Fold:
Amino acid sequence: MERLKPHLDRILDDIDGEEWRDVFGYDGYYQVSNFGRVKSLRRLVNSRHGGRWVNEKIMAQGWDKCSSMLFSKEGTTETQHIPNLVADAFLRERKPNEEICHLNKLIHDSRLENLKIMPIGDSQKINYELGIQDKYRFNKIRAKFLKKHREEHFIYSGGVLVAKICKECKRRLLPSDYYEEQDFICKKCRKEKEGTKEYGKNLNRGKLAGKGFRKCHLCGETKSLTEFYNCKRNPFGKTYSCKKCQLAKRKAS
Structure:
């Protein structure tokens, strides 16, 4: 009997050449194969009515933008993405600037032979070559958005940009009155919208940090850097709410 594609195939029998490995952190609970299939193992599950045995089965994959499914362990559920599971089990560890790329760009085809760890830029080049992205960094949706707004807000003369109409105040202004070439909101409206001063929010933060201070975004007070925790999840190792505000927030929750 001809079998379905791996991401649709829920028959428990192995596909020819299929290899199973434990999912990291879920040993004895789930396994993933080099064909991108995920198996829930036979095990004893505790419940309020006592323990019960669940049988081994191939799990159904979700149909969102990235193939995913829910894992359950000791009463806690967590969403897992299939490409990540396959890569973690069969490929090397990823670096910060790398991602798991589907070589044929079919997001539900998570076979090991279709997955490769590569720099994000190289993955985007494949998108460009396959026609998924019509520019190197801009996908089709963003390119369509930019084209529409250029027609509405940009004024050209002899092929040269001479003026723009601000999206907020509707004034016709010179290109120098905008921060960026593709910006549709003038500097004045941008400052009012973001609540920044003439020298800019980022520069203000830099001046404060240089003097050993930081502004808490919860209480609004400027305090010494010693009044802030360090954060491993933040790429800059910073937290922007002071210790006092964080403790108050934890007590309230």
Q: What stands out?
A: The first strand starts at residue 20 and ends at 22. DSSP finds six helices and 15 strands in the chain. The radius of gyration is 26 Å.
